[in-house]
Amino acid sequence: MSKTDDILKNVVSHAKEYGFVFPSSEIYDGLSAVYDYGQLGSELKNNIKTYWWKSMVQLHENIVGIDSAIFMHPKIWKASGHVDGFNDPMIDNKDSKKRYRADQLIEDKITRYEKDKKLEKAKALQGDLDEAVKSDNLTRLKEIIIEHGIVCPVSGTKNWTDVRQFNLMFSTKMGAMADGSEVVYLRPETAQGIFVNFLNVQKSGRMKIPFGIAQIGKAFRNEVIARQFIMRMREFEQMELQFFVRPGTEMEWYEKWKETRLKWHLALGGDSSKYRFHDHVKPAHYANAAVDIEYEFSFGFKEVEGIHSRTDFDLRQHQEFSGKKMQFFDPEINQNYIPYVIETSIGLDRMFLTVLSNAYHEQDLSTAEKKDQRTVLHFHPALAPVKAAVLPLTKKDGLPEKAREILGDLKFDFNTQYDEKDSIGKRYRRQDAIGTPVCITVDHQTLEDNTVTIRHRDSMEQERVSAKDLSSILQQLTGWSSLLMTT
C-alpha cells in the first residue's frame, strides 16, 4: 500500500473511530457509496453549512436563501437537459465485472505519472484526455486506456469493454395507483429549484439585478464508482448560489466570484499551495466559462467547488418549456431581459473531507526521556464540533460539581463536553483527536479563587484565567466574526 493510500486509510479510520462518518447500513454489510454522519460529523457538517450560509447570505444584502423540494415536475429535467444528456463515460472490466468512469481512470494515471516525476508523460496524457473529452470521442478514451496500460484496480487486468454513456439520474413513481403514477426523478442538482423559483423570489423580495439566490440541499446521482471515501456519493449535499446579472456583465462577475470563493476556502487556514483553479476544457452545454477550485488530497488534486457562467440557458429553457416569461424589467436601462447567471456550487461532503484532511495530523512529541505522539485535528475553532471540554482534575473533593457548574454556564452558547475518566493527559489527547480548541481544567485552586487552567489544542500551552471570563474568551476564539471578517 502506498503512503497516499495510508494517509486516506488513516483519515477514514479516524473518522469512524471518533464518530465523524460511518458506513451506512453497516450491520447489513453497508451500502456502496452511501455514508452516515455521526455525532461529531453532524456537528462539523452543520458548522460548515453555517459558515457558507453566513458568508453568502447574511453578509450580502442582495443574496437570499430558499429551500426547494427534492421532487420537482419531470418536465424540469427535460428542460434542463438532464433527461437527454446527464451522462458519464463508463467502461467495464470483463474480469472483475467492475465499472469505472473512463476519464477518471485516465486522471488517476496522470496523477501517478506526476508522483513518479514523469511530467512529460503526464502532460501528454492530459492533452490526449482533454482532446477526447472535448470531442466526446468515446473510442479514443478506450484507446488511451489501452495505450497507457491502465489496469483494473480490482483484477489487475486490461480486459476492457468499449466506453459507453451512462445516465446518472434516479427515477421513481409518484402516485397512489400503479397505472396512474408518474415517473419523477430524485434531483441530481439543487440549481433547478432555484431557477424555477426565480420569479417568485424576485417579486416577493423586490429584488433588483444583480442579486443571488442560495440554497443548501440534498441531491442524488447514481454514481457507479464508489471510491475515495465521501468524494463520490449517491446521496450528497450541495451548497449553491445562482447569481443573476445583466447580460454582458457576466464575465466581470465570474472573475469576482472566483476570487471571492477561493478567499472563502483560504480563510479556514489551509495551505494555499494545496488549492488551484482548473479551467474546464469542455464546459457544460449551458456554460460559456467554467472553472473548478481543486484541493490537493493525498490522492491528488480533486474538485471541491465549481464556478460557472451559465449564460441565460436555464431561465430561457424554463421559459420555453413552461410557457411563462422568465424576464426581469431593468429600470436602469428601461429594458426587459432574461438575466445571465453565475453559479458557485460546492459539494458539502467534499468540503467536509477537505476540512478533515487538512486538519488531520499525526505528531511525534517524543523526547530523549519519553516516547510520545498524538493525533490532532487542527480545525478552525469556528468549525470545531466541540468548542471546549471541561475536565475536573480528580473525581472527588467537589471538583466534579464545580466543573459541572462551569459547564452549565457555557453550554447555552457553546457546544461543550464533560469528561472525568482517566488521567488528565489521556483526556487532553481525546480532545485533540476530535479537534476541540480548548480544554478547561478545574482543580483545587478553582475552589479557592474561581480560576481555571485553559489548555490550547494547537500549542498545548496552558494559562490560568478567571472562570467568569471563560465565555468571552471562547467567544473571541470560536465565534463566527473572527472567521467571517477574513472572507
Please give the domain count.
3
Task: Tell me the number of strands.
Answer: 23
CATH 2nd-level architecture of the largest domain: 2-Layer Sandwich
Order of strands across the widest beta sheet?
Answer: 3-9-10-16-13-12-11
Mean pLDDT comes to: 92
Could you walk me through the main structural features you see in this protein, from its secondary elements to its overall organization?
Homodimer. ATP binds at residues 221-223, 303-304, 347-350. Belongs to the class-II aminoacyl-tRNA synthetase family. It catalyses: tRNA(Gly) + glycine + ATP = glycyl-tRNA(Gly) + AMP + diphosphate. Keywords: Aminoacyl-tRNA synthetase, ATP-binding, Cytoplasm, Ligase, Methyltransferase, Nucleotide-binding, Protein biosynthesis, Transferase. With 487 residues, the chain is an alpha+beta fold. The chain folds into three domains: 3-70 and 185-357, BirA Bifunctional Protein, domain 2, CATH 3.30.930; 87-167, Herpes Virus-1; 377-484, 3-Layer(aba) Sandwich (Rossmann fold), CATH 3.40.50. It is built from 17 helices and 23 strands. It has helices spanning 3-17, 39-58, 74-80, 82-85, 102-115, 119-134, 138-147, 191-195, 198-204, 250-266, 313-322, 348-359, 399-410, 424-434, 444-449, 470-478, 480-484, and strands at 21-23, 35-37, 63-65, 87-92, 99-101, 164-167, 170-174, 182-186, 211-220, 235-245, 275-279, 289-297, 300-311, 328-330, 335-337, 340-347, 360-364, 373-377, 388-392, 416-418, 438-442, 451-456, 462-466. The strands form seven sheets. It has a seven-stranded mixed beta sheet with strand order 3-9-10-16-13-12-11. Strands 20-19-21-22-23 form a five-stranded mixed beta sheet, with helices on both faces. Strand 4 and strand 5 (99-101) form a beta hairpin. The mean pLDDT is 92.
